[in-house]
Amino acid sequence: MNGEHEFNIRQIQRALRILHKNLEDIPAVFEDGIFGEETEKAVKAFQEQNGLSVTGIVDYDTWVHLMEAANGYIRKNGEPFPIFPYISDEESGVLPDEEGKAIWFLQAMLIAIGEKYSGMSEVSLNGKNDAATRKAVAFIHRKTEQEETNGALTKATWNSVARLFNAI
Question: Quick one: DSSP state of residue 33?
């Protein structure tokens, strides 16, 4: 069996597992990349439920219906998708009292950190590298024994705040 074929079977099995969690009539399958009796039985149950020809074979129509059904449950019931904001070279160096989109994310992280740790100054979500934002960043620099900056947003500042945010 080639790798692409096994990958496609795993996709089918993953979709069937999602449907099994949400629909009683779809039998559970193990995601092993092997199209065995267990997978065929689940495919037949899916085909029957969706008015498709009950063959146990995943043809084009079955594939489309299966993926649409699984993706529908993922969109509705799936885990929230994480975002991974980072500071680019253009966004580093935001000076005191300047604005930047990275400051919005920085402030959101600082607000969350401030809810867990006492002693940090309160930050407003305004997208401006204002005095309160700089004071909160200086607090983190002192606590993490990092060299303080002149109030500019640097990659080192971003990384120390992001690490602390991820820890909470």
Answer: S
